[in-house]
Amino acid sequence: MTTAALPDVARDDATLRAFLHGLPGVDKVGAEARAATLATRSIKTTSKRWAIDMAISMIDLTTLEGADTAGKVRNLCAKARRPDPADASTPQVAAVCVYGDMVQTAVAALTGTGIQVAAVATAFPSGRASLAVKLADTKDAVAAGADEIDMVIDRGAFLSGRYLQVYDEIVAVKQACGPAHLKVILETGELATYDNVRRAAWLAMLAGGDFIKTSTGKINPAATAPVLLVMLEAVRDFRSTTGRVIGVKPAGGIRTSKDAIKQLVLVNETVGDEWLTPRLFRIGASTLLNDLLQQRQKLTTGHYSGPDYVTLD
């Protein structure tokens, strides 16, 4: 089946609501139990180096603070290019994620590296702005050179059942992205139920999102294992229904190598190794890279590095 098989799902609010509420409900106990079981899976030492390098290559290295400066962004880009200056075999990260006004700085620092520049937009993190403002925000970031746009959905509209409004907004932002890829942030910590997470994921995918993303990183809880499981199941079922392959990006609270490896296990066990690529799976993080680098060095040298081995972000 292709997306052409669902041409009228969003023709009006009632039809879209009927479709979203017709999706199978999430077994809360089952989802949490499966996520907990998968979290106990261990990886052999021989595979751990591969997993660490894979996780590094999937990171969207992020700085989204009001105190961000051009110098901080340039330093972050240098770390993205060469995460471990002492070991050239360390992979680059997938992307650097910044506010829109820092896109030009990031683009200049990353030209020729293949590292993507992602910009948060649409009145991130609240999403409380008019559509005109959100579209202008998106277009400005793309014009500055952003390869990817991370937008936030209007959670108030979604939770009020105004699904068509959310759908139309994602469609409009996707159009404003032009050649840039669109990641749609659900802000799962505000959606309250797993059923809402599933509905929001399908809504974002139906509207043309290239990725679905858990969180802004500003709200807790963020990228919990059960939420990621529900979203992975959604992209699996969406491909089965439409033929379209959608990426997934957990973000928020992923700080250690153990956290990252658990994410990779969830991906492998739920959607398969096809998604174990930066093209379809990203990890939004600011401090995770440091722990991955320290664990990587321990595998190489047999001991942990001192506190000055990695840079402070």
Q: Helical element count?
A: 12
Looking at CATH, the homologous superfamily is Aldolase class I
The CATH topology turns out to be TIM Barrel
Multimeric state of these chains? single chain
State the major sheet: 8 strands, parallel
> How far apart, in Å, are the first and last alpha carbons?
46 Å
Structural class label: alpha/beta
Structural domain tally: 1
Strand content: 5-15%
Low-confidence stretches: none
State the main characteristics.
single chain; 313 residues; alpha/beta; TIM Barrel; 12 helices; 8 strands
Describe the protein's architecture and organization.
The protein has 313 residues and is of the alpha/beta class. The chain has one domain (26-298): TIM Barrel (Alpha-Beta Barrel), CATH 3.20.20. The chain has helices spanning 13-21, 28-39, 45-57, 70-81, 103-110, 131-143, 155-159, 163-177, 194-206, 225-242, 257-270, 288-301, and strands at residues 59-62, 95-99, 116-121, 148-152, 181-185, 211-213, 247-249, 283-285. The model has no long low-confidence stretch (mean pLDDT 94).
In a nutshell, what does this entry contain?
With 313 residues, this protein is an alpha/beta fold. It is 47% helix and 11% strand. The chain has helices at 13-21, 28-39, 45-57, 70-81, 103-110, 131-143, 155-159, 163-177, 194-206, 225-242, 257-270, 288-301, and strands spanning 59-62, 95-99, 116-121, 148-152, 181-185, 211-213, 247-249, 283-285.
Topology:
Layout: H1 13-21, H2 28-39, H3 45-57, E1 59-62, H4 70-81, E2 95-99, H5 103-110, E3 116-121, H6 131-143, E4 148-152, H7 155-159, H8 163-177, E5 181-185, H9 194-206, E6 211-213, H10 225-242, E7 247-249, H11 257-270, E8 283-285, H12 288-301
Parallel strand pairs: 1-2, 1-8, 2-3, 3-4, 4-5, 5-6, 6-7
Helix pairs in contact: 2-10, 3-12, 4-5, 6-8, 9-10, 10-11
